[in-house]
Amino acid sequence: MSRRPARPEQPRDTGDQIPGNQVLTLPNLISFGRLLGVPVFLYLFLVERADVAAVIVLAIGGTTDWVDGWIARRLRQVSRLGELLDPLADRLYILATLVAFTAREVVPWQFTAALLARELLLLGSLAVLRRYGYGPPPVHYVGKTATFLLLAAFPVLLLGTAATDVATAASAIGWGLAWWGLVLYWVAGGMYVVQAARLVRAARGPGAAA
């Protein structure tokens, strides 16, 4: 099979702005800060058992999920690096939190397995797209909504494990957010798979390199 030249990635939801090659931008610095928060959260939660500090780090990482993208559009600093860093930070926060919460039995392993299975499905789709010269599919609002719900659910779930008067309510709210996030996470994953299948079918159509 001849090597197919890489196709340009489809534009993300960036307000029709063309991504640039900037590196040191305010949105990228925010994304770098979110990435640095992942090991800080793991250390506080698993080593120090400083749950309050860990929740603060987790909450900041979750609530700033949309900030970098919003600033990038407002300041016209949309960049290719930012398009990679933002979803990377989201996934690392979700995976790190799942591992930590499963280790301390905040969430059952079945919930973790369901989210990890979706990530494996997406990785398989990305591998197929790479084979045909395509980059990752555009970030969809369903996926961003699912990520927001999950990142919002995790601090509330942790609050639900504390021996306080609000624990029962926090647990109910946290699991409500978590299950909705899980469902939408899989819906978004299905949409990405459909996008990937369409691109592969197009690449295999008439005129495709053998």
Could you give the topology of this structure?
Layout lengths: L25 H22 L3 H13 L3 H8 L5 H24 L5 H23 L9 H20 L6 H37 L7
Percent helix: over 70%
Mass-distribution shape:
globular
| Structure classification | mainly alpha
Distance between the termini: 6 Å
Report the strand count: 0
Order of SSEs, N→C?
HHHHHHH
- Overall radius of gyration: 19 Å
At a glance:
Helices cover 70% and strands 0% of the residues. The chain has seven helices and no strands.
Q: What are the defining features of this structure?
A:
210 residues, mainly alpha, 7 helices, single chain
What does this structure look like?
With 210 residues, the protein is mainly α. Helix content is 70%, strand content 0%. The protein contains seven helices and no strands. The protein has helices at residues 26-47, 51-63, 67-74, 80-103, 109-131, 141-160, 167-203. The chain is globular and about 65 Å long. It starts with 25 loop residues before the first helix and ends in a 7-residue tail after the last helix.
